């Protein structure tokens, strides 16, 4: 309850700055969001700056309150651990196969969580899309939830850019589902194909100069 209250306060405060025109944050494609009553979903978005999280959390309707994953090291301090869990952040050990975290994420999705994941695995300060990883694909398939491709542009300027009223645009693409395989496993070749499809969907929402290795001319090369 306390976490929801704090989330609401932050949501209202950031919305106020946006409504008075100081924060020039804009959402495109809101109608693409799956109906909230249908359950959980994964928001798969490119990652440029730490501002990406509060910006998309502000632009989405409040009923789509976000959960996201954070590196386990952030949870070592008792106060930080309490705060992050109140904010529905799920700890994960980066660079390791964290089975427990995977089970936690899948359970949360099945219970209706809206989970923000950055499939690049790290920030791209230049804003150019980097190579994606397959964790989103596996989670979406096992949890039986849709993937919503999303792109953000403008946060490469950081907090200073927002204070200087530089525009930030979040674009929502068409949601899609990943059918479960007969044995619940994804062979490496299929994983590569599904991950590539997801990243291409995100790239299609970005300007050509930001599509990186997923630009059509590069993908088409042998």
Summarize this, please?
By secondary structure, the protein is of the alpha/beta class.
Q: What's the SSE blueprint?
A:
Layout: H1 2-19, E1 25-28, E2 41-45, H2 52-59, E3 66-71, H3 78-86, E4 89-92, H4 99-110, E5 114-117, H5 135-143, E6 147-153, H6 158-163, E7 168-172, H7 188-203, H8 216-219
Parallel strand pairs: 1-7, 2-5, 2-6, 3-4, 3-5
Antiparallel strand pairs: 6-7
Number of helices: 8
Q: What is the total tally of β strands?
A: 7
Q: What would CATH call the architecture? A: 3-Layer(aba) Sandwich
The structural class is alpha/beta
CATH superfamily: Glycerol-3-phosphate (1)-acyltransferase
Q: Kindly state the mean pLDDT as a whole number?
A: 89
CATH first level: Alpha Beta
Helix content: 25-40%
Care to describe what's here?
- The protein has one domain: Glycerol-3-phosphate (1)-acyltransferase.
- It has a seven-stranded mixed β-sheet with strand order 1-7-6-2-5-3-4, sandwiched between helices.
- 37% of the residues lie in helices and 16% in strands.
- With 222 residues, the protein is α/β, with parallel strands linked by helices.
- Helix 1 packs across helix 2.
- The mean pLDDT is 89.
- The relative contact order is 0.18.
Which key terms come to mind for this protein?
222 residues, alpha/beta, Glycerol-3-phosphate (1)-acyltransferase, 8 helices, globular
């Amino acid at each position: 309850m306390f976490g929801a209250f704090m989330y609401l306060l932050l949501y209202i405060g950031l919305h106020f700055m946006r409504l008075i025109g100081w924060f020039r944050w804009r959402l495109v494609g809101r109608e693409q969001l799956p109906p909230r009553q249908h359950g959980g979903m994964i928001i798969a978005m490119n990652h440029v700056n730490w501002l990406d999280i509060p910006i998309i959390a502000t632009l989405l309707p409040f009923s789509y309150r976000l959960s996201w994953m954070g590196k386990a090291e952030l949870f070592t301090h008792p106060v930080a651990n309490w705060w992050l869990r109140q904010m529905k952040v799920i700890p994960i050990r980066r660079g390791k196969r964290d089975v427990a975290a995977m089970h936690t994420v899948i359970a949360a999705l099945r219970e209706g969580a809206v989970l923000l994941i950055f499939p690049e695995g790290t920030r791209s300060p230049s804003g150019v899309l980097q190579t994606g990883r397959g964790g989103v694909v596996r989670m979406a398939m096992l949890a039986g939830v849709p993937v919503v491709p999303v792109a953000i542009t403008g946060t490469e300027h950081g907090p200073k850019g927002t204070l200087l009223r530089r525009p930030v645009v979040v674009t929502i693409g068409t949601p899609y589902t990943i059918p479960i395989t007969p044995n619940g496993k994804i062979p490496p070749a299929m994983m590569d194909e599904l991950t590539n499809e997801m990243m291409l969907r995100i790239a299609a929402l970005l300007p050509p100069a930001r599509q990186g290795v997923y630009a059509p001319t590069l993908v088409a090369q042998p």
